[in-house]
């Protein structure tokens, strides 16, 4: 599932390919996505120029003159460019023809979204208006500590809540908690300010490193066969239940909380 670093990597890869391009025809499969703008509405983009490719949480925002395209990759979405317009791939659901190349979207599980909004409507859009701070931009440790100290929720729930900070999904939440040595189910208000400061720092570090290592896969987003790969981040706990902790060699434990599986070290994380 694409998390914030994957979406940021995708944004960085697409930006130089999209900015300055003129949009042509939109075409789509007949399958439903979680949310999809009508073809009629998407056709209104034709003739406009891409000004910027931005990101808010896990949404990609493509600024096109007075309009904006919002893309969410859902669980299995992939955006990529191709020079020509060969036959549609299996699970390919839409294409936006450009004056150079073609932006394409593939999504086997179809949880992705594609929306077009007026540029002035973007900030107040229902998908975006309740989002908390961006972890790599404007997220302050003091705000995080204040929020934690007033919450009785398990810390993992709190850091995965987009109102606390946006874009921290299951993988990076598990990794950051491990590195900060905080048990995922520990009640937020019971954790010391010192430990919360460390956790805040660790979340930012884990996400930044993932974005940096994603840079090397940028070329994968541009291919004619449409197979962009996500980078293999060095994960210390996620997906490693039962294997030895990298710190103490105890077998890592796993539990399901709020419907999400989490892996942790029962000895290192308190
Ligand atoms: Zn351990």
What labels describe this entry?
2 domains, alpha+beta, binds zinc ion, Helicase, Ruva Protein, domain 3, 270 residues, five-stranded mixed sheet, N-terminal domain of MutM-like DNA repair proteins
Q: Overview of this structure, please?
A:
This protein is an alpha+beta fold and 270 residues long. It folds into two domains: 4-121, MutM-like, N-terminal (N-terminal domain of MutM-like DNA repair proteins); 141-264, Helicase, Ruva Protein, domain 3 (Orthogonal Bundle), CATH 1.10.8.50. 24% of the residues lie in helices and 22% in strands. Helix 1 packs parallel to helix 6, helix 3 (141-149) crosses helix 6 (193-214) and helix 5 (170-180) crosses helix 6. The protein is elongated. The structure holds zinc ion. The site of zinc ion has 7 residues, from loops.
Please give the structural blueprint.
Elements: H1 4-18, E1 23-28, E2 35-36, H2 39-42, E3 50-56, E4 59-64, E5 67-72, E6 78-82, E7 92-98, E8 102-106, E9 113-118, H3 141-149, H4 155-159, H5 170-180, H6 193-214, E10 253-257, E11 260-264
Helix pairs in contact: 1-6, 3-6, 5-6
The chain binds zinc ion (ZN).
H/I helix tally:
6
Strand content: 15-25%
* Helical proportion, percent range: 10-25%
What would you report as the Rg, rounded to the nearest angstrom?
20 Å
At CATH level 2, the architecture of the largest domain is Orthogonal Bundle
Order of helices and strands: HEEHEEEEEEEHHHHEE
Structural class: alpha+beta
When the domains are counted, the total is 2
Distance between the termini: 28 Å
Assigned CATH class of the largest domain: Mainly Alpha
Poorly predicted ranges: 215-220, 222-232
How would a textbook summarize the main sheet?
Answer: 5 strands, mixed
Q: Which distinct ligands sit in these coordinates?
A: zinc ion
The coarse overall form would be: elongated
CATH topology of the largest domain: the name is Helicase, Ruva Protein, domain 3
Q: Which strand order spans the largest sheet, edge to edge or round the barrel?
A: 2-9-5-4-3
Mean pLDDT: 89
Q: How many extended strands? A: 11
